[in-house]
Amino acid sequence: MSFLKNLFNKGPKIEKVEVAKRYQLHARVGQGSMSKVWKATDPINNDLVAIKVLDKAKLFRLNQRFVGMNKPTEGEIAVVLNHPNVVKTHTHGITTEDEEFLVMEFVEGLSMSYLVETQNEQMQENCIWYCIQVGEGLNYLHLNDWIHRDLCPRNIVVSEDEIVKIIDFGLMLPQTPEFRKPGNRTGTANYMAPELIMRQPTDQRIDVFSYAVTCFEMFSGQLPWPSADTMESVLHHINQPPEDIRKFAPDLDEQIAQAIMTGLEKNPDDRWRTTRRMVNEFREAAERLYPE
After folding, report:
1. Phi and psi of 279, rounded to 5°?
2. Which residues of 116-153 are buried (b: 16+ CB within 10 A; e: fewer)?
3. Average pLDDT along the chain
4. Which CATH code for domain 2-105?
5. Which of 72, 141, 187, 189 could form an SS bridge with 7, CB 3.0 to 4.6 Å?
6. What angle do CA 196, 197, 201 make, to 5 degrees?
7. Largest CA distance in the chain
């Protein structure tokens, strides 16, 4: 828990930065629900970086959920993360427009969303290894007492050398009783665990559920339930069992299929208790299917 305590000990006030002058901005490369991202060069070391600028109004509305709770910012969280399957954040700060920004490694590659949609040869050949890498990154976050709360293909990229990285921590919260209380229903609708949707107490098993939905989609190109764009439609189908992944991927290895379906259990006590256990199932299957 010292990892979290260090974050809560706020450092000195950071000097505001005029991003367009400090960095050479090349092009917009993405936009999330709460941010804009640019590909840029840091003129100090000539490194390519990704600069993420958070929407001030949307961030304010999100933070209103945590008034008085000493919630760390996305930058404070991201800059201390260090794992091969988690995007590296070099620095963070405040722009001269009072917007929070992060400067991250630039990952040249493809969004997992694109690979899920196309189900191309790259996806077919590497899917189990991608699932393992996503799980390793998520397990690292869990071991350091975080709940990601928004794991989905949109928040995962695959580099040109086939390294998978989790890239977004805007909804991530500490794994502490205060932040696990019912009521904070945030995330991407299709990947939200039933207990989160029903405003029950949560823990890291909501990420296990999101991980299972993500892996289901990676292997099959389909979601376990009909796609739900609104919370109302999610509420409508949470009491229905998921489709069996073998319906969409009949040739999928049984151990992989069962690992995913266990992660989709409605009752969190029936899911994998840790990401590590689910990843281990994938690793065992991979070693059996692809022996050296």
Report:
1. -65, -40
2. beeeeeebeebbbebbbbbbbbbbbbbebebbbbbbbb
3. 91
4. 3.30.200.20
5. 72
6. 30
7. 56
pLDDT digits (tens, 9 = 90+) for 47-91: 999 999 999 999 999 888 888 888 899 999 999 999 999 999 999
CATH number of the 109-289 domain: 1.10.510.10
Q: Which helix (H) or strand (E) holds 26?
A: strand 24-31
Chain-centre distance of CA 59, in angstroms?
18
Please give the C-alpha separations between residue 49 and each of 29, 46, 104, in angstroms, as whole numbers.
11, 9, 6
Q: How far apart are CA 164 and CA 104, in angstroms?
A: 15
Query: What confidence score (pLDDT) does residue 236 get?
Result: 66
CB-based contact 144:119 (threshold 8 Å): no
Q: Indicate the SS3 state at residue 110.
A: strand
CA 223 to CA 256: how far, in whole Å? 16
| CB-side neighbour CA atoms (13 Å) of 70 | 10
Report how far residue 38's alpha carbon sits from residue 99's, in angstroms, rounded to the nearest whole number.
15
CATH 1.10.510.10 intervals, the chain: 109-289
- Residue 36's nearest CA partner among 115, 110, 97, 116 is 97
Q: Read off the pTM.
A: 0.92
Nearest to 223 by CA among 214, 211, 231: 214
Least confident of 26-30, 138-142, 218-222, 280-284: 26-30
d(CA 175, CA 154): 23
Amino acid at 174: P
What are phi and psi for residue 282, nearest 5 degrees? -65, -40
Q: What's the rounded Cα separation, in Å, for the pair 292 and 236?
A: 46
Query: Which residues on adjacent β-strands are paired with residue 27?
Result: 39
